[in-house]
Design brief:
This protein is an alpha+beta fold. It contains 13 helices and six strands. 66% of the residues lie in helices and 9% in strands.
């Protein structure tokens, strides 16, 4: 009865401390938001609603999981007490499940809430990637949430494995003086719980590997001669990497299950061979990808990557809303006046200047004269003679001596 009272007092004290912490934290965040602007308080309240929702759902899931895990632990410990002919004490479950769930739900909400908000407020773009046939909105809103949940699940299973081991160790040290028979421990639910958690961790890792394969649509697949890189999935990624890593997810699961089987049979040599299959497969996959790229793809690379380059151009146009027709002008020798008139719109859209070019021109023709210098320039749209023109505006500084300058005028270069 005394132990139960102590546990109740401990739980109540913990809840009081937690309530004080939550009130002060929310109050501090609200005042910070209020300093930014009254209009942002609505955003703050909405974010708090999402965070409370995540905390409550996490708490319920964690409490049930911790409670059931502890019940299995107590079931396994009961066999040791029966073997030692001792009365089974009332070990903590509800109190430790409550405290553990509250702490972990608060900690996990810090990095889950943002992803939950993205998933709930998802939007569809109506544009699908050509590799996995998934809407672009999936990569922005749903995929980060799925990845976060899988990582959270893997970390939670690892944490529960540590929790199980610590619960057994602490109980043994408190209630048993002679120690525990290793043979009995192997047959106990302790090993079964640890093995179950390991399998769940591996399943999570396999699922995460399959999800991460989709990142190929955002990777770099081609380097051009002018140091320009094209992003997306290339021939090697689509042909080998995607399927290679999908198979790798299955290889991980098979190798670990075989390793657990041999562990139970105490065949440790076969256990090591099973685990070695994972790095061996990765090395083989890497060699195959490098060989395919070097032997096949690099030979007429642009022709083989043509389809994927077209996808890159198409998605870049859609991303930047560049809906223009491409006109290919045949080289017919000297450009005539008629050619200029017929293609005036094309000529007007040719960008001959950029920030570096403007500063170099100014340095060559102005700074070197010893009177003015230009250290920065910025493009902008200005109304010039009734037309909207893109120009580069550069602050002009009069050079008074070798150490002092001051701003005076602006020079302007039109971008044609």
């Amino acid at each position: 009865m005394k132990k139960n009272k102590k546990r109740i007092i401990l739980v109540i004290a913990f809840l009081i401390v937690f309530a004080i912490y939550a009130i002060f934290t929310l109050r501090g965040e609200y005042l910070k938001t209020l300093e930014i602007g009254q209009e942002y308080t609505l955003v703050f309240k909405q974010n708090v609603k999402y965070k409370i929702l995540v905390v409550l759902i996490s708490f319920v899931i964690l409490y049930i999981s911790t409670y059931l895990t502890t019940r299995f632990i107590k079931k396994g410990l009961k066999k040791f007490f029966i073997q030692e002919k001792k009365e089974m004490p009332k070990l903590p479950n509800k109190s430790i499940s409550l405290i553990f769930s509250v702490i972990l739900s608060i900690v996990s909400s810090a990095f889950i809430t943002e992803k939950v908000m993205l998933a709930i407020n998802r939007a569809w773009f109506g544009i699908k990637d050509p590799i996995f046939n998934l809407d672009i909105g999936y990569y922005m809103f749903q995929k980060p949430f799925v990845e976060t949940i899988l990582i959270y699940f893997i970390a939670l299973m690892a944490l529960y494995s540590i929790y199980v081991a610590l619960y057994y160790i602490i109980t043994f040290n408190i209630y048993f003086e002679k120690g525990i028979d290793p043979v009995t421990l192997k047959k106990n639910t302790f090993i079964k719980q640890i093995i179950t958690n390991i399998i769940l961790i591996v399943v999570g890792l396999s699922a995460l590997t399959v999800i991460n394969v989709q990142d190929v649509v955002c990777g770099k697949f081609l380097n051009l001669s002018n140091n320009t890189s094209l992003y997306g999935a290339g021939l090697t990624e689509v042909t080998i990497r995607v399927w290679g890593y999908r198979i790798f997810a299955i290889i991980i699961l098979i190798c670990v299950i075989l390793a657990i089987k041999y562990f139970r049979q105490e065949k440790f040599k076969k256990l090591m061979i099973s685990l070695c299959g994972i790095p061996i497969y990765l090395v083989l996959l890497f060699v195959v990808m490098i060989g395919f790229d070097f032997i096949y793809v690099n030979n007429d690379e642009l022709d083989k990557e043509k389809k994927y380059i077209e996808h890159n151009i198409s998605f870049t146009k859609n991303g930047y809303d560049i809906n223009v027709d491409e006109i290919e002008i045949q080289n017919s020798g000297t450009i005539t006046t008629d050619d200029i008139v017929q293609n005036q719109e094309v000529i007007d859209n040719i960008n001959l200047l950029n920030e570096d070019t403007v500063l170099n021109i100014l340095k060559q023709y102005q700074t070197n004269s010893g009177y003015y210098q230009y250290t920065s320039t910025r493009p902008g749209i200005y109304n010039i003679d009734g037309k909207q023109e893109l120009v580069y505006v550069s602050p002009r500084e009069i050079i008074s001596d070798e150490t002092r300058t001051y701003n005076r005028f602006f020079n302007r270069y039109k971008n044609i």
